[in-house]
From TrEMBL:
GO terms for molecular function: aminopeptidase activity. It comes from the Bacteria. Its cofactor is Zn(2+). The lineage of its organism: Bacteria, Pseudomonadati, Pseudomonadota, Gammaproteobacteria, Oceanospirillales. The keyword DNA-binding does not apply. This is M18 family aminopeptidase. Belongs to the peptidase M18 family.
Length: 437
């Protein structure tokens, strides 16, 4: 595989994954094509060395692994962690509004969305729908309306002459999405009725829509942009970019002595405290099950490492003062090792040195990021995973602009660079640093 083919696969993945559930479905499809075997948590497992496996949790998070040739307590696990969710506008349970001849849907803001970027976009809806079929059985379907069905229009500058000096956005009053227009005195169908009609048109037997988890998304497709197509622009680069990179590294790495694993969690953008988030028990439960007993688990963890892959802030050419003068990562200059003295990132000197070595072995450049000392630092699943598992962690990521915007920008080379570094990581037989003599 070369960079152009890798990026084209990435663009297809991003386009097909408007929600965490769709992202997990796409990853399952790619794993099936690569010969990985689906597991169910409640069943007995007969695992074989060298074979790949995966299991999903509520269809919103996924753990995939290839069992190593050596026992886990002798070789450990090479883990990559990422997250499937992105900031967005989620539809409320009772969303239907009708005001001044306009039908709207009320929304909640999920995560730290950059709200100004959601205005004047062609928006569609995707997510999960739970419904009763003709026999009264509760069923679930994934939907993606694909076509634009909503818009969040800006207020004209003529009605707010101070707009270019900054506008405060009230999530309750300014974000209901326009769904359509109706002649005076008429009422249209409610969202649940429209969802039922859509599912019936798709061949589902639906008697009633009971509930849903839906979000709006921008219908503009991902693209390679720039004079020489050196940039990737897309929604949800944070953090489906890392999910795809980690998945490709797992699929294309050869079976090794150590077990190789990818964990893609939901709910990172809202703190990870859920059954399908990094603070939930799924990954620890799996590792304990693979280890067999407590002593083997402790030995496994002592020889393991997790690469927490979540995008980093590239230096913005129009706002260079927002970065520390020595720590301004650039696009297309390699993956970024993220440091924070207050453990907002879990990187240690040891794990940073190890990851820099993987990059050197892969022949790719590496960069460093530290937030300005007078600014607050974001966080990742890295510190959570380190705390939950007691494993060594390094926080890394592809540099990007516009994090949490409806459309983000990354370098076309950087995803490939991180993929190569992760392939080297997954092939490591040992993760040791020799003591001084």
């Amino acid at each position: 595989m070369q960079t152009p083919a890798f990026n084209q696969g990435l663009l297809r993945f991003l386009q097909a994954a408007p929600t965490p559930s769709h992202a997990v479905l796409q990853m399952q499809t790619l794993l099936d094509q690569a010969g990985f075997v689906a597991l169910e948590a409640e069943e007995d497992w007969d695992l074989k060395a060298g074979q790949g496996y995966y299991l999903s949790h509520s269809g919103r998070s996924l753990i995939a692994f290839r069992l190593g040739q050596a026992p886990l307590d002798q070789a450990g696990v090479r883990m990559v962690g990422a997250h499937t969710d992105s900031p967005c506008l989620k539809v409320k349970p009772l969303p239907d509004l009708q005001r001044h001849g306009v039908k709207q849907l009320g929304v909640e803001v999920y995560g730290g969305a950059l709200l100004s970027t959601w205005f004047d976009r062609d928006l569609s809806l995707a997510g999960e729908v739970h419904y009763l079929n003709a026999n009264g059985e509760l069923c679930q379907a994934l939907i993606n309306l694909v076509e634009p069905v909503g818009v969040l229009p800006s207020l004209a500058i003529h009605l707010n002459r101070e707009a270019n000096k900054g506008v405060e956005i009230n999530p309750q009053t300014h974000l209901p999405v326009v769904w359509g227009c109706l002649p005076k005195g008429q009422e249209g169908l409610a969202l649940r009725q429209l969802l039922a009609h859509h599912l019936l048109g798709e061949g589902y037997e639906v008697s009633e829509v009971v509930d849903y988890d839906l979000c709006f998304y921008d219908t503009q497709p991902p693209a390679l942009t720039g004079w020489q197509q050196e940039l990737i622009t897309s929604a949800r680069l944070d953090n489906l970019l890392s999910c795809y990179i980690g998945l490709q590294a797992l699929i294309h790495s050869e079976a090794a002595q150590a077990t190789q694993l990818l964990a893609c969690h939901d709910h990172e953008e809202v703190g990870s405290a859920s059954a399908v988030g990094a603070e939930g028990p799924a990954l620890e439960n799996l590792l304990r099950r693979l280890a067999g007993d407590q002593l083997a688990y402790q030995r496994l963890m002592a020889q393991s490492m997790l690469v927490s892959a979540d995008n980093a802030h590239a230096i913005h050419p129009n706002y260079p003062d927002r970065h520390d003068e020595k720590h301004g990562p650039q696009l297309n200059a390699g993956p970024v090792i993220k440091h924070n003295a207050n453990q907002r990132y879990a990187t240690s000197s040891e794990t940073a040195a190890l990851f820099a070595g993987f990059c050197r072995e892969a022949g790719v450049p590496v960069q460093r990021f530290v937030v300005r000392s007078d600014m607050a630092c974001g966080s990742t699943i890295g510190p959570i995973s380190a705390t939950q598992l007691g494993v060594r962690v390094v926080d890394v990521g592809v540099p990007q602009w516009g994090m949490h915007s409806i459309r983000e920008t990354a370098g076309a080379l950087d995803a490939w660079y991180l993929y190569r570094a992760l392939c080297v990581f997954m092939q490591q037989k040992e993760l040791k640093i020799q003591p001084s003599v």
